[in-house]
């Protein structure tokens, strides 16, 4: 874990140590993932479907490298703009590793359910809580056939909510479905 001394007292930002990052980056590059949006790739469509299934305003397909998270698939509420051509708006396709909850899912290699992030001191001070207003999160890792957690699929809401067993099973199922699709990108020897 790391500590950011620039944060106000009582608002620690803890990010998990990620020993698998170099191998993950090699694997993502081999599969051609995690650098640029892929028009027509289906990641945005997948995120939209996840948002509908989870009844959540936000849903993402996230790939994580040593320094940042990349939202290859992004569904967000209408009226929230995405960063375009260098003009910053409210939501970007990239986010530092220190923001959000997906890096925790990748390092833990287990699904994470946060029904109310304010109840978890580790997560309550996260910038996306204050800056975006995220109050609940549901995410599962994308673990490929090599055992590397490439990233996550996740849904988030601006209000606390009980995701329940059904939400957990749904996010795990959606992650398994996407892993199957990702493995089709494997280059043949």
Structure report:
- The chain is an alpha+beta fold and 189 residues long.
- It has six helices and six strands.
- A hairpin with a 3-residue loop joins strand 1 and strand 2 (68-75).
- Helix 2 (43-54) runs antiparallel to helix 6 (164-183).
- The longest helix is centred in the C-terminal third of the chain and has 20 residues, at 164-183.
- The model is unreliable at 1-13 and 83-90 (pLDDT under 50).
Strand order, main sheet: write it out. Answer: 3-2-1-6-5-4
Which residue ranges are poorly predicted, with pLDDT under 50 across at least 5 consecutive positions?
1-13, 83-90
Shape: globular
Gyration radius, in Å: 16 Å
Task: List the topology elements.
Blueprint: H1 21-31, H2 43-54, E1 58-64, E2 68-75, E3 94-96, H3 102-108, E4 112-114, H4 121-124, H5 127-131, E5 136-143, E6 149-157, H6 164-183
Antiparallel strand pairs: 1-2, 1-6, 2-3, 4-5, 5-6
Helix pairs in contact: 2-6
Brief account:
The protein is an alpha+beta fold and 189 residues long. 31% of the residues lie in helices and 20% in strands. The protein has helices at residues 21-31, 43-54, 102-108, 121-124, 127-131, 164-183, and strands at residues 58-64, 68-75, 94-96, 112-114, 136-143, 149-157.
